[in-house]
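Working notes for the structural subgroup meeting. M.R. asked for a predicted model of this chain before we commit to crystallization trials. I am recording the input and output together here so anyone reviewing the notebook later can reproduce the run.

Input as submitted:
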Amino acid sequence: MILHDLCGADPDRRFSPYCWRVRMALAHKGVAHEALPWRFTDKAAIADSGTDKVPVLRHAGRAIAESWTILEYLEDHWPGAPTLFGGEGGRALARFVNTWSDAVMMTGIARLVVSDIPAHLAPADAEYFTRTREARFGRPLPEVTASREREVEGFRRDLHPLRMVLRERPWLSGPTAGAADFIAFGPLQWARCVSAFPLLTPDDPVHAWRGRLLDAFGGLARAAPAEDLG
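Returned structure, recorded in token form:
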């Protein structure tokens, strides 16, 4: 089992939100694997998977791409291991969280931390990242995040549905953490690994939930090189 996992110039700095979803799911399932460092300009290493983005999981001669597809693959091929979804209802709920997280969390966080990412990349990757993201945003990256001190308040308001659930229970997925938790956690771990800008306030239930996931699986996520140590 091999996971191609996005890294910075430092191969230990793993910061893809989508890869973190998979890493947490693999730990939850207890599936032994090797997480190989992969960089933005290393397209050839995953060309056979039909995508130029990670995560890509290799198992039994197959290359499985896209984080949601990988989560389903893990659930379906390791049915005796701890469940990610807790049944088809939980799978449907996790799919909704996946869509919501991509639309709300990923978009909101990118506007707050994207200018901090190039500093963590090797020169060729920094050039690629800056060029492609500035084309996406239509302006220089420092301009994208220039008003983040003000805009973070809107992002925190957007997390209110997540916050309301976490005020009543420790996990999104039920009595234990599961796929829905790992999916929503991924973007927050991404931000934590690349930026010291505080997305959450210490009194926020989302902050406490993030802390529980940082400590899960022997502190797997907390041990990752990070800028936000709160």
